[in-house]
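Interim report to the steering committee. The following record documents the input for EfeO-type cupredoxin-like domain-containing protein (161 residues).
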Amino acid sequence: MTKYDISQPLKKGENIIIFTPTETGEIPFSCSMGMYTGKFVVVDKVSATKPVQQIVDNREVVAPVVSKTNNKVQLIKSLYTQIEDVSPNEFTVKKGQPVKWVIAMNEPPTGCMQNVVIRSIGVTQPMNTSGETVVEFTPTEAGDLWVTCSMGIHRATIHVV
């Protein structure tokens, strides 16, 4: 939030940012690339009694998808759209076995979302504009692999057991 000189990297889970608005109006905020945006609407005490439109995220919480093993290769699948990014976006795979992640491209990716990056294991895979994007790797250690765009924005988590 540039108006209040607040710039904070976010971590997985809940993030709390405390600030005190000094005037009524809209306070915009966004990610560093400006791709994810929102705003706070600050009202005075008189206006505070009127209802304010709120947008509610009604997406259901989905359990991680367990990979399917075919000829010793673990297969995971997602669908890409510009609104939802990759969905599902949480998987469980076994360490030491090759993984093949097939992403069906419903729309062409834009901006920094044109790459699938798993920095901790050195994977960078450009996304195709149509058809499928295939990401292949073999996890060697148990733990969570964060999948990001090229700018480091979290896109998915792969749990390695």
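The chain has two domains: 2-49, 65-160. The committee is asked to note this result when reviewing the revised timeline.
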